[in-house]
């Protein structure tokens, strides 16, 4: 439970961090909050020779309201979202979600960008990014590029961020007023990795769904936005029957693998349940 | 004014709560770090060990051959029974490995990180053998013997069959058949195993500071394994961060650590990490109980016919042996129920998995689950309410002799259950349940009634034919010239608050305040030989011994006071720090009496100087009892279970400190809930442990454990000298049965049976899918 020896660097800017990445190549590893990396180093599952600590880079801290979207610096702590960072539906939704991320001390250290870069299938922020259509600002030797969330996640623990690149900022499009949001996750204990989770946003008028966003996480290699089901929801009455039917539809669209915490069959059932419940919460929120 | 029965804040807590406790790792400053290289395979023959070039070794690497050359002998746990198979347990594996995580080499380096670096450079070549992991693997007809000494893989077996069993089943109106399984669990102490071994050049002695529950026993076992004089060793258990039975065993790592300390004449520290604790600490509760119960039409239990299997892992734990689970299951399965015919066979089965050792409750959580499920399921078949089933079967006349010959002392099985049922208010619950069901929500209530055998003395352990028979306890009590008392005990408390409870007990006998009594424990140089703290024994046995020793102190104080006040000693009463002469207004401070017998001893020619006494106690054993009631809500879509209420009516005899008793019960219930719903060690078919971190092995947290509602009864038994019974394990014993009963009650509309614990969401959903009841 003691890491293998490593060297440590603390750059003060994104460009300095990129220079270090270029210098150390395969042996350099970015560390942000360290809530996943440090345990795996202690288990010696990860053995970076060089750690590049980006916690002190001012330009990638904090959240700013850019009118139609929120811009989130990569090393913004989860705890920043304990209270709404913006009075809009998106700000309130992030506060609902953050309470499900691990435990209070972990939320003080862990970062938004670290969570996306690590790309754990059960990461709540990854589900938010995919469902809300986030855009990632990735910096590298050739400058900055923007990657939509749909192309960012490549698989379990795999993203579009190259070895010599750094995720600097995330842009989350706001939801217009009048939308309701709902999040539901199921885990064995409070704070554990979810066995399944869903995020829904609904625009409901006169009991009818006019527009929908729906994402499913922790079932499969990375979270997925269920656009086909969003289309199916549109025009339907916002009723428990609709939500149960959509959950049942989702069940046929996922192929989870089983593990010691739940069989594949169990997780498929659970996908239906969390989707129906997230939709129910979103409809309640919209009402 | 009596100190007994008062919720006195624990004398231990000011230090512990302010971070001033001293655990063994706090004593490691200046020590070199020890790490063990562990087998990556469950079973195989060691064909070679590759070491770095000697000039590259910054430290030391020791192998089995080094220890053998040093005269180290394998640890041998012994039962004197014909059905017991003796297997030597080497400190380091030399020829073969028999479980994943078994220590193969020991490395010593300047720091822990360097020791881990060095350990990574040791490569063990193993020719694999077929791993034997599960009970099914081990008992298969063509199963490979785990050890040459264990053909058939049965290490110990208890069996009996009364002549009437078969007839009872023929006559039965109803037969219930159970096939219950408890998955493997570990005790999960907050502090792992480990020790600091310190060599003293002046005396040539080694002091081992270690996280253990039985320091005297550990010293004896170490001296035997190392073939050295016991006097060369001192074992100290400083503050210990939880044991729950898992720190009773003499683990082979301690043998290697102390040997290396003598060899290198250096201070060494082995501080295990959580992964090591999972892999190579002790496991428990890997049990399958196949039991049939025969009932009359009126719901009377007539007979039990059972086959109990406990997976005891690769070795037999020293000193209590691998008999601890199977033989307890065999002897205590009948629980608090009155029936005559008993045909049970109980086997301890060896496998290529980590060693089983006692864990709070040992076999009783599973045997209580079994008996309570028999009652519930027979009641359901016969149309008799579960509470009424128990009314018709509980023991109510004492002393009661069980079918296995255990003698039950005075207890309150029926009364505790009736009290719990009344407090729980079943009619109100049933109304809530009906209303919830109408709305598609599933509430359930479950009941568990059980006995907790505590204060096992030597007769109880001797009945298992243990070569090392623990059970008695000894106490030295000394009053110094200031009138303060030092109590040196062989028991070894590690978080239970025993020092406070003993101080309260002794304070009443001597007439001084508890804060005038210092209890010294856990140091073989400073305490009389004793067996440590385990098996809900310390309050009963060390308490009894303390009471005897304190009474002798009180006698002497009366004699001194009688002489000084010129009255007969028997007219003296002791209290509030004073010796008072009855019928007079004369008194003397107890401190003055103590000063006189130390500093003016020439004035007491009839007496020995000073005040030093001893007490011994070796009880027959006694039974606490309790009723647990649990209310749950089951989410039929996710399979999740939420506990809405947990109620305990406990009867542990005389309460010395109710707060401490409540703490024991609450902590025990939490571990029982863990057993029922959360914790599970999982090996794959190759014997790789899949749950070796706290991300995969799930002890419940405060968020999962409801407030525990505790009520007390106090049945005083003549079988314990203080009137106090043990209460260390009851919470753990009853909770799984109550939780499972509640889940099945909640899911009764679906006809779901829960046959495996933990009842995880996955298992509950699978049971719902398979159930014959209406679809969700």
TrEMBL record, chain A:
Residue ranges of every copy of the FAD-binding PCMH-type domain listed in the record: 1-177
InterPro entries, A to Z: CO_DH_flav_C (IPR005107), CO_DH_flav_C_dom_sf (IPR036683), Diverse_Substr_Oxidored (IPR051312), FAD-bd_PCMH (IPR016166), FAD-bd_PCMH-like_sf (IPR036318), FAD-bd_PCMH_sub1 (IPR016167), FAD-bd_PCMH_sub2 (IPR016169), Mopterin_DH_FAD-bd (IPR002346)
Superkingdom, natural source: Bacteria
GO molecular function, one term: caffeine oxidase activity
PROSITE patterns associated with the record: FAD_PCMH (PS51387)
Keyword terms: FAD, Flavoprotein, Oxidoreductase
EC code(s) of this entry: 1.17.5.2
Pfam families: CO_deh_flav_C, FAD_binding_5
Protein name: Caffeine dehydrogenase subunit beta
Origin species: Pseudogemmobacter humi
TrEMBL record, chain B:
SUPFAM superfamilies on file: CO dehydrogenase molybdoprotein N-domain-like, Molybdenum cofactor-binding domain
Entry's Gene Ontology molecular function annotations: caffeine oxidase activity; iron ion binding
Record-annotated Aldehyde oxidase/xanthine dehydrogenase a/b hammerhead domain positions: 18-130
The organism's place on the tree of life at top rank: Bacteria
Keywords noted in UniProt: Molybdenum, Oxidoreductase
Gene3D superfamilies assigned to the protein according to its UniProt record, in alphabetical order: Aldehyde oxidase/xanthine dehydrogenase, a/b hammerhead, Aldehyde oxidase/xanthine dehydrogenase, molybdopterin binding domain
Signal sequence segment: none
EC code: 1.17.5.2
Classification via InterPro entries: Ald_Oxase/Xan_DH_a/b, Ald_Oxase/Xan_DH_a/b_sf, Ald_Oxase/xanthine_DH-like, AldOxase/xan_DH_MoCoBD1, AldOxase/xan_DH_MoCoBD2, AldOxase/xan_DH_Mopterin-bd_sf
PANTHER family: ALDEHYDE OXIDASE 1-RELATED, XANTHINE DEHYDROGENASE
Name assigned to this protein: Caffeine dehydrogenase subunit alpha
Gene assigned in the entry: cdhA
